[in-house]
Design goal:
This protein is of the alpha+beta class. It folds into 3 domains: about 90 residues, Pseudouridine synthase; about 130 residues, 2-Layer Sandwich (Pseudouridine synthase), CATH 3.30.2350; about 60 residues, PUA domain (Archaeosine Trna-guanine Transglycosylase, Chain: A, domain 4). The protein has 9 helices and 19 strands. The strands form 4 sheets. Strands 1, 2, 3, 4, 7, 10, 11, 12, 13 and 14 form a 10-stranded mixed beta sheet that branches. Strands 15-17-18-19-16 form a 5-stranded mixed beta sheet. Helix 1 runs parallel beside helix 6. The longest helix is centred in the N-terminal third of the chain and has 12 residues. The radius of gyration is 22 Å and the shape is globular. The chain starts with a strand and ends with a strand. The mean pLDDT is about 95.
Length: about 290
């Protein structure tokens, strides 16, 4: 089974648990995700099945969109509602405009420190495992990009907002940093990923729905092909000689520069229209990165 699956992740299970469940449901052993969600979070979890696992790196680079709920006045060790409370702070209710201003202060390119309770590896060990044993080490700050952040509702102590951000952004950290800027601390109590790349929550399927599709023999309806999933890359149709060279990993001249000028990668199709490879454009040449045939 080959293709991309847009799963609506339920709460209280890990992304790895979802992968295991989908593996059981579909009988496909090769499954990879394109960016995990915390157990507390729900929403879009994009999985690559079969040969489509080879394009996961392109999909995980896509922009993410979330709906978040931030609770003011309480900080936790995990930066979310599932952690141990570290501090409870009494505070004067901030004005709505103050919250708007603080949130807008995170817009653009920012430096963010990933939470100790994360899957980032430290000397080969996931940071959350070290944190559980009290052996966590401060993780290096990283550059992330917030393209949009907007307050949608405010009912003290709960702040509701939406955010669009780059790969690697932790909304938990965003809430903790916003709480610090407001002067009373905060943590995330609810998080829904509504979009990952061009995969949206409206088009996602639940695990139960996936089970039903498999039983009815129509699971293909839930799958997106690798070609369609990478539709943001321009497509180039090769002739037979060019296709043969690409199959063997050889570079070919950028045969249609006017189409590929908006992207540094293109989809290469053989004369029948079948996706043959993903190539990088470099120095006027098309250099295959992934060959599917």
């Amino acid at each position: 089974m080959d293709g991309i699956l847009n799963i609506h992740k339920p709460p209280r299970i890990t992304s790895h648990d979802v992968v295991l469940k989908v593996r059981t449901i579909t009988k496909e052993k090769r499954i990879g995700h394109t960016g995990t969600l915390d157990p507390l979070a729900t929403g879009v979890l994009v999985l690559c099945l079969g040969k489509a696992t080879r394009i996961a790196r392109y999909l995980e680079a896509g922009e993410k969109e979330y709906q978040a709920v931030m609770r003011l006045g309480i900080t936790t060790d995990t930066l979310d509602a599932e952690g141990h409370v570290l501090a409870i702070t009494s505070y004067t209710k901030p004005e709505t405009q103050r919250i708007v201003d603080v949130l807008q202060g995170f817009k653009g390119m920012i430096m963010q420190q990933p939470p100790a309770y994360s899957a980032i590896k430290v000397s080969g060990v996931p940071s959350y495992k070290l944190a559980r044993k009290g052996e966590e080490k401060p993780l290096a700050y990283r550059s992330v990009y917030i393209s949009h952040i907007e307050l949608t509702s405010y009912e003290d102590p709960f702040v509701y907002f939406t955010v669009r951000c780059s790969k690697g952004t932790y909304v938990r950290t965003l809430c903790a940093d916003a709480g610090k800027a407001l002067g009373m601390g905060a943590h995330v109590t609810g998080l829904v990923r509504t979009r990952s790349g061009h995969f949206t929550i409206d088009e996602s399927v639940t695990l139960d729905e996936l089970c039903g599709m498999v039983e009815q023999g129509c699971v293909e309806q839930a799958l997106t092909s690798s070609d369609e999933a990478l539709s943001e890359f321009p497509a180039l149709l090769l002739d037979e000689d060019e296709s043969k060279r690409v199959v063997h990993g050889n570079h070919i001249p950028d045969v249609c520069a006017e189409m590929s000028g908006s992207s540094n990668r293109v989809r290469l199709h053989d004369p029948t229209g079948r996706l043959l490879a993903i190539a990088r454009i470099e120095a006027g040449m098309l250099k295959p990165e992934i060959v599917f045939s």
